[in-house]
Design brief:
By secondary structure, the protein is mostly beta strands. The chain is built from four helices and 14 strands. The protein starts with 22 loop residues before the first strand and ends in a 16-residue tail after the last strand.
């Protein structure tokens, strides 16, 4: 099949999210200007650059409702800081709980019964049970087309200031993803876990002057 975006796909569910898969989950913790912790997962999340290390994620919320993404975006823009926490198979249920639409006064760490750890370079707390965290400084927001009802959509860019890695997930000086077992978002309400890993060295250059 082929469909033109503006004309619609005619399917029961949107197929777009099932094409860009698997997507890493940015499980992002922030603090409000009043000091209330917030924790929310974002499936449009990725690394953007290695030198300096930078990350990006997309926050989208309709004009009415959608408070989860809006709170994270507002907190980051007001405080200039956030933390990404690795979402793993062992934490999948807790991650899903923190996706609930709740008011800005709700602490999602408490909602999901998650213990916290203090960060070193920024103020937002970390998910204690997560094996990898990145402490980030807000860099900029790129405004994107919002929802038809006037909701806001934005691409948030952050600079990584420091990274925490649990010693038990390191093997021979490398992050052992077989031990981490990160989860990724597929289309619809489906997820996957990294459990099969294979190496594929880059080919050597061929030809040239």
């Amino acid at each position: 099949m082929f469909y033109e975006i503006k004309k619609g796909h005619g399917l029961p569910h949107n197929p777009f999210q099932s094409y860009i898969v698997p997507r890493p989950i940015g499980w992002i913790s922030t603090l409000s200007a009043d000091g209330v912790p917030n924790l929310a997962p974002f499936s449009f999340f990725n690394g953007a650059l290695s030198h300096p290390p930078m990350v990006v994620f997309t926050s989208s919320a309709p004009a009415e409702g959608g408070r989860k993404t809006k709170d994270t975006l507002v907190n980051i823009e007001e405080t200039g800081e956030f933390v990404t926490n690795m979402a793993t198979e062992a934490l999948a249920e807790e991650m899903n709980l923190t996706s609930a639409y709740v008011g800005p006064e709700v602490d999602e760490f408490d909602l999901a019964n998650l213990d916290t750890l203090p960060s070193i370079l920024v103020k937002p707390p970390r998910v204690a049970a997560s094996p990898i965290h990145m402490e980030c400084e807000y860099f900029k927001t790129v405004e994107l087309p919002g929802s038809p009802d006037g909701g806001r959509a934005a691409l948030v860019v952050g600079t990584v200031l420091g990274i925490h890695i649990a010693d038990e997930v390191l093997t021979d000086g490398r992050i052992d993803l077989g031990k981490v077992r990160p989860i990724g978002r597929l289309g619809y309400m489906d997820y996957t876990v990294v459990d099969t890993i294979f190496p594929m060295p880059r080919p050597k250059p061929v030809g040239g002057d």
